[in-house]
Every structure is written in C-alpha cells, then in structure tokens.
Amino acid sequence: MAESHSPTPPSVWRNPIHFLAFGFGSGALPKAPGTWGTLVALPFVLLWQQLPPGGYALVLVISTLLGIWLCHRTAADLGVHDHGGIVWDEFVGVWIALWLAPTGWLWLLAGFVLFRLFDIWKPWPIGWADRRVSGGLGIMLDDILAGGMALVVLLIAEWLLALL
After folding, report:
1. pLDDT tens string 16-52
2. How far is CA 53 from the centre of its chain?
3. What is the largest CA-CA distance in the chain?
4. Distance CA 64, CA 75 (A)
5. In whole angstroms, what is the distance from residue 76 CA to residue 64 CA?
6. Residue 61 burial (CB < 10 Å; 0-12/13-18/19+)?
7. Could you tell me if residue 39 is left (phi over 0), alpha (psi between -120 and 50 degrees) or otherwise beta?
C-alpha cells in the first residue's frame, strides 16, 4: 500500500530513475498522485493501441520489468517502501487495463475509472498482494492485478454489448 504522500524529494527532478518512477514527475503533484499518474499514462495508451496485440504485450512486459526495478530502486533510495509519489505502477496498471479493450474515448474513460476503483478498493487478490509482497515487485503487483481485473470487466462489458 502506498504510504501517505510525503514531500517530493528533490532527487525526483535530478535522478532519471526517480523521475520515471514518479511518472515523469506526475507523482509529485500534492493531491491524489496515483490518479494524476494514471491520467498522464493515458496518452501512451493511444500509442500502444496502434501496435498489434503482441507488440502491446511486449510493451507491457518491458514496462513491468523496468517498473519493478525503477520502483525498487527509488523506494530504496528514498528509504520508504512505497512512497505515494511512485506512480510507474499506475502507468503499467492502466496500460494493462486497456490492452485488449476496444478503442474509443468511452472505453478509455471506463478503463481509467475501473482501474482506479480496483486500485483504491483493493479487493482480493489485490489487497493480499499489496500487504504480502514487498520490494519493487510488491509495488507493481497490486496495480498489475488491478489492471487485469479492470481489463476482464471491460472485455465482459464489450461481450455483453455485442449481444444487444
């Protein structure tokens, strides 16, 4: 679970690892950094959706592995398990939520809202992962699961709408 939003360390603006972990600085915003980070991640979805599904999946794998390292390193450098400003995990989570989802602004909005709800509410197994897994993997895993759950809901909604 992200610890309460502490003041933004100056290293965020000097250290490229911290800058990326803070979502290009979006995690430094004073209120709701996870929501701001998710919003900043959305334009990338528009780029990733131009790729074939396998290409998008490759982006997800690379960004997840990079994120585990970025989040671990930044948390260790700051001496905080999951600083509230570390939002790379939100980037990857919303990218997962929208991976195979239909394109369009309503789907983008639905994916954003569903991802944030799952990330905030943390139903099982998200909450379990958030409490039990540590380090960079722990920072990333709850958002990966929240993104996956949001994606499943979007795909079910798409299927149900196709039945109408």
Report:
1. 999 999 999 999 998 999 999 999 999 999 999 999 9
2. 19
3. 53
4. 16
5. 18
6. exposed
7. alpha
User: Which residue type occupies 108?
Assistant: L
Distance CA 36, CA 25 (A): 10
d(CA 10, CA 7): 9
As a whole number of angstroms, the distance between CA 144 and CA 106 comes to 22
Tokens of residue 149, six digits: 């759950």
Q: Residue with structure tokens 């991802």?
A: 115
The alpha carbon dihedral of 46, 52, 54, 55 has a sign of negative
Bridge partner residues of 3 (DSSP)? 83
- DSSP code of 26? G
